[in-house]
Structure formats: C-alpha cells, structure tokens
Hints:
The complex is a heterodimer. By secondary structure, chain A is of the alpha/beta class. Chain A is 39% helix and 18% strand. In chain B, α1 (14-24) packs parallel to α2 (39-51), α1 packs parallel to α6 (149-166) and α3 (62-74) runs parallel beside α4 (85-101). The longest helix of chain B has 18 residues, at 149-166. β2 (64-67) of chain A pairs parallel with β9 of chain B, so a sheet runs across the interface.
Amino acid sequence: MAVPVDNYLRNQFMPHMWCPGCGHGIVLGAVLRAIGRLDLPKDEVCIVSGIGCASRAPGYLDFNTVHTTHGRALAFATGIKLARPDLHVIVLTGDGDASAIGGNHLIHAARRNMGITTVMFNNSIYGMTNGQYSPMTPKGRYASTAPYGNVERNFDMCELVKAAGGNYVARATTAHARQLSNYVEHAIQTQGFAFVEAVTQCPTYFGRRNKMGTPVDMIEWFRKNSVNAAAAAKLGPEELDGKIVVGEFYRGDAPEYTQVYEEVIKRAKEAAAR
Amino acid sequence: MPGRKGRDLRLLQGNECCAEAAILAGCTFFAGYPITPSTEIAEILSEKLPQVGGHFIQMEDEIASIAAVIGASLTGAKSMTATSGPGFSLKQENIGFASFTEIPCVIVNVQRTGPSTGLPTAPAQADLMQARWGTHGDHPIVALYPSTVPEVFDLTVKAFNISERLRVPVILLMDEVVGHMREKVEIPHVSDIEIINRPRPDVPPEKYLPYAAGPDGVPPMAPFGTGYRWHVTGLYHDETGFPTTAAPNADRQMKRLYAKIESAAEEITFTSEESLDDAEIVVVACGITARSARRGVRLARERGIKAGMLQLKTIWPFPYGIIGDIAGRVEKIIVAEMNMGQLIGEVERAACGKCEVVGYSRVDGEPIAPAEIVAKIEEV
C-alpha cells in the first residue's frame, strides 16, 4: 500500500541537511510509511533522538519531537514513556549515538522491556563530525581516525538487544526499503522494547574513504552482500564474513515495563489505603 | 501523624522531609541512581510516588536519571532527581539541556566532600560554584540552600514552584548534615501550601509558538501528547522551537534566558538574618554553617561584640544587592564556608570594597562549630 509521507513532514524545512546520496531519507521514509500504515494519530507519537546525523530527523517530523543530548535519547524516552505510557515513543538514533556513548541506555531499555521502538541508522561512521570510526565500523575499514584501517571488531547490535531482553529485533538495509518499513511497523506494534537496525550508506565519509563508489553503488553493495536470516542459519562464520544478515531475528512476549508498573501503582494505592 | 490541635508534627530526617515536601509540592516523577548521602530520598519516593499514581524509576546511571526526569517533565509531570557530588558532576550536560530548553525539573544535591570520591560521606559545601557553572555555556539556574529540616520542607516546595513558574532547573543544595539530621518539622495542611504550576498556552495548537515569551520572559509550555506538537532541541532555536544559527536570534535567546531570572530575582531570593541592625561584624553563611554562625553571633553578642549574621537560602541568583547594602554599613564581613573559598568571591564582588571581607574555611569533612565562629569574630 502506498502511503504518502508528506503529511508527517514539516515541509517548510525541506530540503533537509543530509548530504546528497545519504541513506537516512530512505530509512526515515520507511519509518513514516510504517506510521502511516498503522494510522497513528500524530498527537500520540513522540519521536526522540540524540546527537548526530540521524538524530536530526525529528526536526523534520510533525509529531511531538525531542532532539536531546548525545547518546541519551533512550533515557529521555524512558521518562516520557513511563510518565505517558499511552504515547507511541520512537527513538531515532545513529550507530555512534546508540552503540557507543548510549550503549548502556540501550542495554537497559531492552532489559526493562520499555515500550519504546528504536530505529538505529547504522552508517558505520560518525558522519556529523566528519568520519571517525564507530563501534559499527567493520574491521579493516578506513575512517578519519583509522587511517591504517580499523583494528576494532564491530558490534552486532541485534544480538546485543536480543540478549539484553528486547521483545523485537530486526535488521534491513536501504536496499530493502520495503522490508525495513515492515520491520518498523512490526516494531511499533510490539508490546515492549523493539529494535530495528537500518544499515544505511554514508557516501560522503564512509563511502569515499573506503572507495565504495556512488551512493547507488553502495546500495547495490548492500543488496549483493546481504543474506537473509534463514539462509544465514545454514552458513558458517567464514561464509558470513563481511555479509549483512537481514531479517526478523527475534519476537518475544515478555511483559512491557509501564504495564508492569501500572500494577505497582495499583498495589501501592491499595497498601496506602489500608 | 496529626498531633495536638490537629497539627501534623513529625520528627523527620532532612532527606525524608525533602521527599515528603516533593509529594506535597505535586511531584509525580522521580528517576535516580543510588548514591550516599541522598539515597533516602529515592527510597522514600519509590514507596510514596506510586501511592499517588506517580512514577519512580531507578535508572542505569546518573546521566540517564536526569534525562528521564526531563523526559517526564515534557509530558507535564513535576519531576525530580536526587544525587551527591559525583552524580551531580555526571548530570551537568543534561542540566544544561533542561536550562536551555526551559524544561522544569528539580535536582537535589546532598553534598559530600569532594573532589572525586572524596570523603564518603563527610559534609562539605564545595558544590556552590558547580551548582551555578557546572554545565558548559552561559545558562540560567536557580539554587536554594536549607539549613534546617523545616527549611528543607519550605525550600523543596519553593524549588518546584520556582522551577515551574520560571521553567528553569532548580538545584536544591543540601549539606550531608542536614540531609541526615532529624528535627521536628510541622507539615502544613495541603490547602495551606502554595503550589505554582507551569504556564500553559491559552492559544489553539495551530497558533502555539513554544518559545514565545510574555513580558516575564517565560514561554507557556504545552505538555507532550495534548495536541500541541512542538520541537525541543538543545540547538539555539527561535520562538517556533526550531533550530536557527542566526546571530541576532542567539543573542536575543540568551539574554531572555538571563532576564527571566533577573526579573524574578526579588521573589526568589530568600535570606534569614540575626542581629543585623547595629552589627559591625557580619557573618555570611549558608546551610549548616549558618546555624553555627547564628549561635556564634549570639555568643559574641554576650561578650559585647556587635556581631550579626546573614544566611543565604538562595545562592543563585546571588543576592548581590542585599550584601552590597550590608557592606556599606558594617566594618567587616566574615564568610564562613566548608570549602576553600567559593562564596567569598561573590561576597567580595557584592561588597565592592565597601568593607573588609575575610574568609573562614574548613575543609576536613567536619562542620564549622559555633566556637570557631566566635574565635574568628574576635580575631578580626
């Protein structure tokens, strides 16, 4: 179903500030189409971000929007969700924001199973500050702070969130815009913490330094190097080296935090009345 | 327990009293992280808040705690956190965010001896400057400082009221001694407590400009999820709330933030005094030191010395005018404080050379005793 996204944009701020060829618009479009298919009332949606390229998204969106401090989006979102459990709280964050400076908040939001949807725009680089390596930069890739190639191993954030206790975990790339949007839709429908990793291209910093060609070449590279979760299950670690595993990895049904806390309120009121 | 004649008299610890006052002031949200000597506030609110339909959460760290508090406040909840020195340091970036985006919140700092882990958890009064300048950049802030348990009640309520009224983070600085001391306190009837709520927009959503301030410099604030969709950012922003790098706007925004506090300075400045009228030597102090100063001044009077004291319950904005007036009519001001000399710098600025200003510092984790105040008065 085609869903127009214009209705959700603060169109007066177009054109946006992202570089030509940046994949963030594709990811944002996927998020907005998911919101559109679910027909969420704009007043009941709250979008929270941290700092970085991806975190500039909320400014363009006609919802209740907060552009917070670096890495802390999920902590702000936790306060919003707990105080107003009826709101759809969606965190838009980048790989540096979510996996480095905000990594602990991600772990604990997942562990608590807060009813928050998190979409991590993973472009494998710190774009806003001109291309330093992030915890998501693959080993051997170049960055402005990895002139001899990155020596660190990159994170698998989907495994992390699953292990930490989130109720929904999925990954897609900008070559899979339709799947990505479906995953975000499923994430928003999840009771509890939901995490979608959106692998996206940064042609300006990651692509150029790593000789990945044009933005289209980068998307094509994502398509060719992606393996779906079912196929990946039959492959060994060597065959999966350098591949991007995409798909829905986990659906759980652990109780959502704010619903559990409502029970606490009920019990506390009973105790106080005695 | 209601006591004689229906009065609600209680023997409360400072931290307990702070939690009680917060509930009566309308606090419905607390997020915190365990740290001595403030933890009782979190423990009590974890029990009391859900009883009134509010929410308590223990976050993964100090930074997340203040972030959750700001998030909850965006939905309209009166929100608070409590911490001590190391945690106060960690919260600073987000305190700056709340100040700049004008989101009300109360931050309690039950001070202990620093820096770093310091002397856990001996008292000190060394976070006065951090309360004012802890976060980066120019920013408005208000800090209140009780010296007794009854004052903890009064100033906790005032902290919420000021935070809501001016849309500014309010720091409640407590001494470890006050936080853990038990004293008699009369809890007023809820109908006798003045409660101020944040200004709300009186225009429909399509006409709402989230950062358009009235004459008092305070913009009305619509809670999230009530039909007013607006944008909050730590970037410089104009009246619409959206970011702009325009130089004239930046200048206007920062000056408005300062002006809204300055124009309310009189109503948010609280002091207490002892024998000031004919005093020749005046002791300026806050928190637990003010109690020793009060006693010290009485003892000095018994010895025929014309001593007086001024207790600052509002530290920021600093009452330069009040101290300037005193400096114009006394011979000497003694600034007594449990740090290497923080308050004294501001007192000197206020005194402008009109009288001699001398400091008395104690930094060994022990409170300043009345006898030390008397000795200092006699020495100068």
